[in-house]
Amino acid sequence: MTHGLLAINILAHEQEALSSLFGSSRYDMEARFNAGTWRKGEIGMPILEGALVSLECRISLTQEIGTHSVFFVEPLCAEFTRQETSGLVWFDRAIAGPDSAPRALAPGQTWSRRASIVSIWKAF
To answer: pTM here?
Structure first.
């Protein structure tokens, strides 16, 4: 995060294979990024061709929580590149289809397709 910028690419449901590739520890970053078609966005961040939405952001805060780094970002540029398709949703440790509900809900838990959008980002 040397430059304090990153891109968030919100995937379409049809991009599940690419999401799985990025989620696997079996592949290095070069192999992951070689699987997609990328171009530079308005401020130079990597934009994934075919993503539903691509955001170029400035990192405003980073929090270390357990084994994860959580980035709070300020979007600087946005591209809405696809329409008429569903986003890729990760819920309850599984990818849910556009019309499916999760396997099981805990008492008080609710389901929404907007529960979580899988995204791919790369910082520079």
So the answer is: 0.72
